[in-house]
Amino acid sequence: MNLVPMSNRLRFAPSPTGELHVGNARTAIFNWLFVRKFGGSFIIRIEDTDIDRSQKRFENQIFNDLKWLGLDWQEGPDIDGQLGPYRQSDRTENYKVQSQKLLDKGLAYNCFCTEKELFIQAEEAKRSGLAWKYPGTCRTLSREIIRDKIAKGCPSVVRLKVRSGRVQFQDMVHGEMDFSSEVIGDPILIRSTGLPTYNFAVVVDDFSMKITHVVRGDDHLSNTPRQVLIYEAFGWKLPIFAHLSTILGEDRTRLSKRHGSTSIQHFREKGVLPEALLNYLTLLGWAPREDQGEILEKNQLIEYFDLEQVSRSSAVFDFDKLYFFNRHYMKTVKFSKVIDLALSFFSQEGFMKEMDSKLKTWFELVVQAFLPGIDHLSQITNKTKSLWFFDGKASVNTERVCQILTNSGAVEVIFELNVQISDPKRDLIKDWSVILEKIKSVSGQKGKNLFHPIRVALTGIDSGPELEKVVSILELGSSLNLPRPIKNCRTRVSEFIEAMTLVGITPPSSDL
Question: Among 44, 206, 212, 299, which is disulfide-ready with 76 (CB 3.0 to 4.6 Å)?
């Protein structure tokens, strides 16, 4: 089935009533990938007819988030285009013109039923266990009655006259769709305020902007029969529809705030890389062939993506899998990008300031050492706090450190470490392997029984990067002009042993 016209025009039409979330971002990505693969135009249209909730700051944030993900567009409110304007609030006159055309053809009508009257009807149907739809009360009003009511200033809406029979359309994801018009009440096209309803505005806009494919979430699937009827009333050709599956949380319910924040801004603030999020979101509802793998660069996503292979089954948003992707990209993107992002988090904590070349070299060592132990870059400041915050007394009294100190040979290792680094002239970075061998020889310990006691004496915690890297970071960092000074290895071990002594841990023998 060839559903790719020669000139593709796809749109992403968010409402600026809140932050851009992963579901809408996935929709934007699928539209963008289709255009990038097959050619055409990707268009941004802002649907801001919800005047009370729409805010300019959300619109700007949507633009920023899409650009951050690496998406670009050929037409939109920020760059204009030949078929604009690209905000619904700037297109209201056209909705009135188009609705009048349907009124003139007798395919729509003015409805003067009040909200109170409709509410009472709906409540009566509910009590009877029936599904309510508008009964067409005003369908047969004469032209004279309509003119009289309008002249008297009676508020009215414009409704479409729904034809009888089946409503059918082809969907690239769900296949042939078939609905009965009997269950569809005459939908409102223009409200009494003069503003259009979603279903009317989106049809008029998509036709006016020559949209060829409507790719959106399947929460709009129930709207589509009404939109098809509006297309038919105008005699307009239908676009090609593709309704994407709902994204679920790990509990298999619709992804929402109870699963944690899932806005693009949230992931940006956590230090998730755009490459990782773009790659992961593309795989929610679509999968490449097994031989193509899952870790895909942008050009590969464009090459492999196939809208006709999108699954109709709901996709589950897995935070752990996203962070798996992020760990990969933190290792493969330009290191300067990781450094810049990491620096922003350290600056927020007051650990760093503007860097000279010496400080930059040291900071790169820190990031390289701690990067493998984090899922996203906002974790790095917490992971590295042992560099800035060392308290021998506090660490000796923690449960994990206490357990290590009770292990056979642990005390011997720490006191021998103190002996080996006590000479202030000794270069600990250069001699670290020699120092380790000497401690191992004297204490008789190896493996974790050797490394764990050394680690807690140097850092106060029981896990972290390789000791050789930790020693280099501490020794070099202690000589730098940092906003918060770093204690060197000798000072740390001395404070740790003093704290051990206070809780009754002394050298095991006079030989040490």
Answer: 44
Domain assignment of residue 272, yes or no? no
β-pairing verdict for 240-244 and 213-217: parallel
In a domain, 37, yes or no: no
Q: Which of 116, 152, 237, 257 is catalytic?
A: 257
Contacts of 436 (CB under 8 A, 6+ apart): 450, 454, 467
Alpha-carbon span 314 to 170, nearest angstrom: 20
Task: State residue 395's pLDDT score.
Answer: 95
**Is the confidence at residue 5, as pLDDT, over 80?**
no
Question: Are 74 and 225 a contacting pair, CB within 8 Å?
Answer: no
Helices (H), 39-84: 56-68
Instruction: Spell out the residues 6+ positions from residue 141 whose beta carbon is closer than 8 angstroms to its own.
Output: 109, 110, 112
CA separation for the pair 285, 29 (Å, rounded): 12
Share of the chain above pLDDT 70, in %: 98
Residue 382 domain-assigned (yes or no): yes
3-state secondary structure of 373: helix
pLDDT tens-digit profile of 45-99? 999 988 889 999 999 999 999 999 999 999 999 999 999 999 999 999 999 999 9
Q: In this structure, what are the phi and psi dihedrals at residue 439, rounded to the nearest 5 degrees?
A: -60, -40
Question: Is pLDDT of 510 > 60?
Answer: no
Picking from 408, 412, 409, 435, the residue whose alpha carbon sits closest to that of residue 489 is 435
Residue 334 among the catalytic residues: no
Average pLDDT value for residue range 201-227? 97
Q: What contacts 150, CB < 8 A, 6 or more positions away?
A: 110, 156
Measured CA to CA in angstroms, residue 432 lies from 300, 417, 454, 466, 470 at distances of 45, 11, 12, 12, 11
**What token pair was written down for 6?**
């020669």
State both tokens at 244: 């994407």
Residue 271 lies inside a defined structural domain of this protein: no
Q: Which domain holds residue 395?
A: 335-512
pLDDT digits (tens, 9 = 90+) for 150-161: 999 999 999 999
Phi, psi of 50 (to 5 degrees): -80, 80
Q: What pLDDT, on a 0 to 100 scale, did the predictor assign at position 299?
A: 97
Which of 508, 500, 437, 505 is CA-nearest to residue 467?
A: 437
Structure confidence by residue, pLDDT tens digits, 106-158 = 999 999 999 999 999 889 988 988 888 999 999 999 999 999 999 999 999 99
Q: What is the CA radius of gyration of the chain?
A: 33
Number of structural domains the chain divides into: 1
Enter the tokens of residue 357. Answer: 């070349």
**Is 472 a residue whose pLDDT tops 80?**
yes
pLDDT, tens digit (0-9, with 9 covering 90-100), for 257-285: 777 789 999 999 999 999 999 999 999 99
Nearest to 272 by CA among 381, 378, 384, 383: 378
The DSSP line for 243-306 is EEPPEE-TTSSB--GGG---BHHHHHHHT--HHHHHHHHHTSS----GGG-S---HHHHHHH--
